[in-house]
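=== Given protein ===
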Amino acid sequence: MTRRVALLAHEGFPDRAKTAVGVLRYADSEVVAVVDREIAEADPDARVADYVSDVPDAPIVGRVADAPTFDALVIGVAPIGGGFDESWRPDVRTALETGADVVSGLHYFLANDEEFVRLADEHGGTLRDVRQPPDDLTVAEGIAHDLEAEIVLTVGTDCSTGKMTTTRELYEAARDRGIDAAFVPTGQTGIIIENWGIPIDRTVSDFTAGAVERMCRERADHDYLFVEGQGSIVHPAYSAVTTGILHGAMPDSLVLCHEAGREAVHGYEEFEIPNPGYVAELYESLAEPVAPTSVAAGALNTANLATAEAEAALDRYRSQLGAPVADPIRDGPEQLLEAVL
């Protein structure tokens, strides 16, 4: 039976609620409602289709109490730093009081919250913190390049440039072609969608590459592995996790993800994003001593642009990278898949 879920996305849907959008687009669940009080207060009849056109529709409500019956509440927003916003507490409390599970990708673990633990015990729900890594991680052995599977890694010019979406689109397009492929999730959204994976940004730094290598080895019986990237090597806070994934996966090819028009690092606007062509060279140079690779294609998020503007942005990105480029949602992933195959 398909699981019915509600997505908590207060003040974030859709642009700052990438987990919610990812679940809508890719998860094998029925989304009964998105919970966003700001949208619901402005328009009591608001629906997902008013904001995102290419995912299943659902009502947008202001409180969990206003949602249709559901089996699980998924926290679909992740603020910088992954903290828990106390204004969400009444909604999480309501969900637990109905006996529903609560799934979170935050760095704040719900299972350490005394009130939530008590409510889950009293009403039969479970708390799932997907950013809790395994206890038995180790350092990498440096053997991912010896695996028979072809490994494709998405990388970015910044956070939130579409790496999970691009990885998922490539994986699903490959599967549609009959290619034996696997999706390797490294972040909370991918883990929630796939129901497995290791949250790389929560691992001990010495074990980051090893965690990625471990996941690749676990799926090495497939012909292609599409590994979800995180962060960016030019990000002032998150470059470490990016480097760990790059060296742990030892990818055969890279797909560089960028958002059209973004010139500064999100949340760190004093840091400019370099020319994407230069960023591509940085990734290749950083990989070279460990496992040489190259940027085979570029994924460009043009969601906020009109068609003509998007075409111009794609032309510019193509000239910067010197590689095939496409918006995997607007254009489809076929050009990108051809480049990595």
